[in-house]
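Worked example (supplementary).
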Amino acid sequence: MPSGQSLTVSILEKDSAGLLDEWLDAMKAAGIGNDTRMNDAELKQQGGEFLKVLGAAVSGGNNIAAPGWAPVRQFLESVSRSRALQGFTSEETATFIFSLKKPLFARIRRATSNNPESLAEATWEATELIDKLGMHTVKAFQKSREEVINRQQEEMLELSTPVMKLWEGIIALPMIGTLDSARTQIVMESLLQRIVETGAEIAIIDITGVPTVDTLVAQHLLKTVTAIRLMGADCIISGIRPQIAQTIVHLGIELQGITTKANLADALAIALKRSGLTVTKAQKT
Amino acid sequence: MDRIPILRMGEYLLVTIQVDMHDRLALSLQDDLTEQITRTGAKGVLIDISALEIVDSFIGRMIANISRMSRILDAHTVVVGMRPAVAITLVELGLSLEGVHTALDVERGMRLLRRRLEETDPVDDRQL
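After joint prediction of all chains, the assembly is encoded as:
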């Protein structure tokens, strides 16, 4: 009588085509491949490839951490990663592996129909194996999702601090979103760095995109303005909305010594004036 | 003991800090500079700290004090070339150096000094 392990091996060897078909049916019944993200051919190709690497690895034992299982692990990781990027849920990704149980168990039952004991043993080993593979898939899925989140956070930080040059000697920083300590630190550093690089004498901080100003945010702003002044440049704060002006006064925040303007255009106008430049209408000839 | 050189350029004094400041150096700079201002009758002092990488609260206070002392001795002070990291540190230490004039580099600092001098006492009163 063959052991549970070798039974799985022989099923994978002899009947992989039938197993694949039934597996695909089970997947579809579970709701995978029913939308546009993944078509039948792709699913079939992935399934076939998985059965092939699984067949090669399963004869080497049940321990999926062993080196013989490396191709299977890598395959599952790549599948998880692509699923995560395509926006599948972890449940849908795990179903890819777990739906293999039904067709595999049916085959084990057929092969051991006269021997309930070896049926139980083979089923146990197969289920243990598939559970491990499923766990590994979910783990890889989670990891790639976390990578995506981390990358997006970094991108958001980069996006939130664009320092731009408005004119020779005038740079502007439009702030968007809530200001917390970490962000303000980055904003402050990149702004000061740009002042050094460009030698700009006037920096405009535009807070049109900042939804609320509380004492902490105001303090951060004051610090930035002071640091800019220490470096020898001037700072103008623009884009203060009526509500924010009210909040600032109600909170008792002193913005003394800081030039504030209602919008960026006014700030640019005063900056040009301070640089000794004037804007005039072109004369028609 | 090393000292920070104080260069005379016409009616201005130029101080460039090229080494890391320690407390004793800062104190000797304070002595030397006030001495030089009275001796030369300088009207403006330019302190270039573009090479200064590390500051603490003491050095920050020294810069403010030197500037204030010069003002009493009738000389305007401009601190130029402060690095971003230094500026952030001073702000975090709560030193905003009120009353100290700043500029991005020596050239602009010179221009600022000249402008301030012209505002406070017109050229024809001074001997050039």
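Two points are worth noting when inspecting this output. Residues 6-125 of chain B form a domain with the Transcription Regulator spoIIAA fold (CATH 3.30.750.24). The longest strand of chain B covers residues 12-16.
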